Amino acid sequence: MTETGTRLSRRERVRQATVEEIKAVARAQMAAEGTAGVTLRAIAREMGMTAPALYRYFGSRDELVTALVIDAYDALADAMEAAVEAAGPGGHAERVRAAFGAFRTWGLEHPTEFALIFGSPIPGYVAPETTRPAGLRYTDLLGRLLAEALADGALDPARIDVQPSPALARQVEEFQRRRGGAGLPAPVMAFGLGAWARVHGLVALEVFGHLAPAIGDGAALFEQELDAIIAQSGLRG
Question: Which SS3 state, helix, strand or coil, does residue 208 take?
Fold first, then answer.
């Protein structure tokens, strides 16, 4: 490598380290002030930088928030995918349980990031299309798990305890048409969406502190809900 190439590589490493520090300070701001509390000027003060210097890394608050949103979605999906991988290739019910369990664990361990992607919208911020691929990773994982179980004969749409109404079946078909491809049978897809909504809602209640005043630790209720989801799915293996 040339001397110039070495200097460029070093410069890029320094730049990346600064970007990560900016994001770390922004997350600390959100933890202290709420997700709407992020300001580039406050971050610059915290880091001992001038505001114009920080704008060389992020051109606006929204650009920084977008980077944080993508990071949060990717971290959540990474955690869920790792849990599924650790559960092994068989045991479809256990893989679904592992994915949902990792969703809860990640939310409880990262309440600030959870609030950023699932809490109240930040005033004035509209997530751009660039956040969509990261945002779809964790939901697509559930679809893949159901598709694998279906292909292995471990999931029979006729065994699903909850069947979609005609209105919901139409919505599911339209949803899958927009996503492209034939997708899953309507009963499987509708069940998956319902299971996702149930788990998401329960975890949100726990992360945002609404569950603890009633029952304290939400682990037992969460496990009960997972048991019900698995039983209603008719998953075998």
Answer: coil
CA 23/CA 1 separation, integer angstroms: 31
36 C-beta neighbours (distance < 10 Å), count: 15
Domains and CATH numbers, the chain: 1-59 (1.10.10), 71-233 (1.10.357.10)
Angle between helices 92-109 and 186-207 (to 10 degrees): 30
pLDDT per residue, tens digit, the chain (237 aa), is: 444 445 668 888 889 999 999 999 999 999 999 998 899 999 999 999 998 999 999 999 999 999 999 999 999 999 999 999 999 877 999 999 999 999 999 999 999 999 999 998 999 999 999 999 999 999 999 999 999 999 999 999 888 888 889 999 889 888 888 877 667 888 898 899 999 999 999 999 999 999 999 998 999 999 999 999 999 998 876
Contact 189, 183 (CB under 8 A): yes
* Assessment of whether the complete model's pTM goes beyond 0.70: yes
